Write the C-alpha cells for this entry.
Amino acid sequence: MNISEVAKLTGLTAKAIRFYESKGVIKEASRSANGYRQYTAAQVEELQLIRRSRLVGFSLEECQELLSLSNNPNRRSADVKKKTLEKVAEIEAKIQELEGMKQTLLELANACPGDEGHDCPIIKGLTCCHDKK
C-alpha cells in the first residue's frame, strides 16, 4: 500500500507518516522498484494506534511505549491500563491548572470597568509581584 492510501486509511497526512518513520516510531517502509514507499497492514495498524493515542493526549514517547506494548506478545493488560490511568491523572491535573487560570482571568476581567479610562485592574493584576495561592 502506498503512502497516500495509508494516509486515507489512518487519517494522517503523508508528512506525519514520514515523520513517524523518520523518528523510528514505526519501521521504515520498504521501497517498490520505482522508489515509492510500500506499507504493510501491520504498519497501518501501528499508525492507527499512534493517531488515536495522540488524539487522547499521549505524547510521541508514550505512543512509542504503547506501540511497544502492542507488539509484545507477553504484554500484560495491567501495564497498558497503568499507562492509561497515569495519562488520565495527568489530564486531570492539567484541567485543574486550566480551571485556575480561567478563574484568575475571570476575576481580573470582573474587576475591570472596561471603560475609556486609563486605570486597568487587569494590567495591575498581571504585573503584581505575588501570586494568589
Summary: The radius of gyration is 23 Å. The chain has a mean pLDDT of 93. The first strand starts at residue 30 and ends at 31.
